[in-house]
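User: Round two. Same drill as before: sequence, then structure, for each protein.

Assistant: Same drill it is. First protein:
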Amino acid sequence: LSPGAKMGCFTFIKVMMILFNLAIFLSGGTLLGVGIWVAVDDQSFVDIFGGLSATVVQVVYVGYFLIVIGSILLVIGFLGCYGAQKDSKCLLMMFFSVVLIIFIAEIAAAVVALVYTGLAETLLSAVVTPLLKEKYGPDDSFTHVWNVTMKEFKCCGLNNYTDFTNSTWYETNEVYPDACCNFKQPCNATLAAKSNVTGCFDQILEEVKTNAGVVGGVAAGIAALEIAAMVVSMYLYCHLDQK
């Protein structure tokens, strides 16, 4: 290629890098804003987005998750956009390093999720079950979110009805939530055991398996974008001296 063609190619890739990372930066800001909203007022979020959001809000703590993801995207977007704009090799290398670390972490998380699903359930149980025992009933927002979740997915608790045994709700009302007995009343221990309603963790896992193709496609798309971003940032880094 002639020097002019090389310069034109470099400029085009640089502009694409700036626009791409500007989009990432704006997306990060949006996710950060939504995350703060969910963390502050999760009930309004559930009222607007419905049952699926209720499950995500309560089981995954989506507010804090979005705050973390939004902050990471803001940093990545800034490094990539500003680094390309200012022709900064330092910022481009930082961008490459951050994306590479995230890429490796995603692969590790995917392997752990596939191989150690039981471990994930154990960790979630250790966190969520005590909250169910303590906050279901006294905390109106928490109770509303879980009621919507259990009704929408026809599930009970995180694992099963025993998550509510010795809970504040059970000690106050001497019954389990109606969802644990397929909404038959009174939902006592005998009826709850007989109803054998599945825990919400298993229901969510089943939903993920049902939509495995979509989840895999999204994951593959994200991985491709990350690889492309690393390739482009390294191209700009290596060709800045030849500019």
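Second protein:
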Amino acid sequence: GKKVLIVYAHQEPRSLNGSLKKVAVEELSKQGCTVTVSDLYAMDFEPRTTRKDVIGALSNPEFFNYGVEAYEAFKRRCLASDITDEQKKVQEADLVIFQFPLYWFGMPAILKGWMDRVLCQGFAFDIPGFYDAGFLKNKLALLSLTTGGTAEMYTKTGVSGDFRYFLWPLQHGALHFCGFKVLAPQISFAPEIASEEERKAMVASWAQRLKTIWEEEPIDCTPPWYFG
């Protein structure tokens, strides 16, 4: 069976994000997938990139360069265990689903911190060895997110601009950079102002989509998809 990692960033299990995570676990498990959830708030996951991420001596204690130190520590197997635990989950996954509410056109800090710390050089990419040559190139990634704004706000002529614009740094700058093949995002627009029926429909449509998720083709990872 396939292996799925859900990286989940919401504080409240009864939220729509919580429901979307729960239904994904149920649906994918029913298919025979092995599903692992990293519940970042429950784990009290550290989002900051600090000296503590390296066990033992730094390669250059005179001048702290996080990117260099994380790369060297990865090669020496001296990264902190909370990072290596997550890297192991990513390494084993065929599909990584990120479930989160959109904060300021981006990810909540705790999830951004997961990206900053887990997707380090040597593990997720190298120079050269990024975009189509990124080290996670045999994996799929999918952003499932909720917004405060309505769908019409997130159109080309809407006040927030097309939703694909804010996906560029997340999908292209992080996921595709590391080689992931990116599946179309699942966006649940404005659940806060939706009716109970509409929220149920959002959960149901996600569950329905997951039934055939393994047949989907990744999006075209080029600027025109976003800004075309």
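Helices lie at 16-30, 40-43, 66-76, 81-92, 109-118, 163-175, 196-211, 223-227.

User: Perfect.
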